[in-house]
Amino acid sequence: MFGAIAGDVIGSYFEGFPTKRTDFTMFQPGTRFTDDTVLTVAVADCMLNGLDYAKTFREYAHKYPQAGYGGMFRRWANSESLEPYNSFGNGSAMRVSPVAFAIDNYDCMMKEAKRSAAVTHNHPEGIKGAQAIASAIYWARTGQGKNYIKEQTQARFEYDLSPTLDQIRPDYDFDATCPGTVPQAIIAFLESDDYEDCIRKAISLGGDSDTIACMAGSIAEAYYRFIPEYIVAKVRTCLDPDLLRIIDQFNTRFILNPELEKCLTGPYSPGSPAPAFPGPLICPVSCGIM
Ligand SMILES: [Mg+2]
User: Fold this and answer.
1) Is 185 within a domain?
2) Would you say residue 194 lies in a domain?
């Protein structure tokens, strides 16, 4: 899930100043973490500690009130009711990556992706977007190739992944819906050569750059299993200790990625190491499948 967070942090500047180029300076002044990071970490916290999604999202939103949430989410987080609001915004898909890294059974993972989405984004397209990103991550981290990921995504989720980035880019504009960003993020991943290239291509579409880079980056992390150390180190300096603590606990427990773990010995060192678990990839809730 660090790949999602790095995508959000790098993309944060370009949401306000979109670019159609790939050769931009990655860390612009004012680069910061946004709602995508906050809610991804909230999902990771839920996976680690068996927390309730709705309550946890609300707590994180109150703790980080300036992270740039969408209006509907902000109203929901500040309301008395925790009823979902039928959104098909891309918030469900940008926060889902920890689910796909943590659960090893595909059907269980799909069910949990839906649960994580549906507390706010209970519109079918909101759930579908989360499940499509989660599936791509799952297939990537379990060794499937890009052709498989493309074909399965098209078959199961009915997204058209045939346009190239060069075809999409000229007319692409800001869009914060799942149908308007999830297929584009997956295409950016499919066309990428490595993690950094994926982030650059995702941002070069212009539009909701932090979220597209977050979603594409989460798949790229699972597929390439390597995030350049200078990116990890710089992104860590943009995060606060509480976010880093959950990220490090999650990575220690769930992500089997020796190369990435090497990179994760950045400026922050957790007070106490997370407990060793026999393996990652458990079902955090009783979903009836595992
Ligand atoms: Mg954002």
Assistant:
1) yes
2) yes
